[in-house]
Sequence to fold (123 residues):
Amino acid sequence: MRYAATGRQAAPRAFLLCLGTLGTGQSVPMIEQIRSKVRAWPRTPVGAWALGLIVAFAVLFVLKVTIGFPLMSFAIFGVGIVGVILGIIAVVRRERSLVLMIVGGLVGAFILFWLGGELLAPH
Fold:
């Protein structure tokens, strides 16, 4: 079963196609196209490095806060920033990794909020 509609007819026909395949066990081609482009784990070296550095940042940060790991905070945040920058490069290069995008976005937002808080109210 192929789906070839374009333009204004694409959305209603795709919706009807979805309704027509409910309970039949058939897959919807449009959803299969999207599903085939998005992967769970990164497959390129840049994406793998980005995810590794982001996870390393999270582990080092938790160790620093809980047991006072003897590593300077700016070095830990440097690891996180490099990981987020590599993640952005990987996404721009069409790395569609769900884990990389979600985790990278959360860590990037955390670093921005932390840095903003330190600049606005230093101690």
Remarks:
- The chain has a mean pLDDT of 75.
- Residues 45-67 form the longest helix (23 residues).
- The chain is about 70% helix and 0% strand.
- Residues 59 and 76 are 10 Å apart (CA to CA).
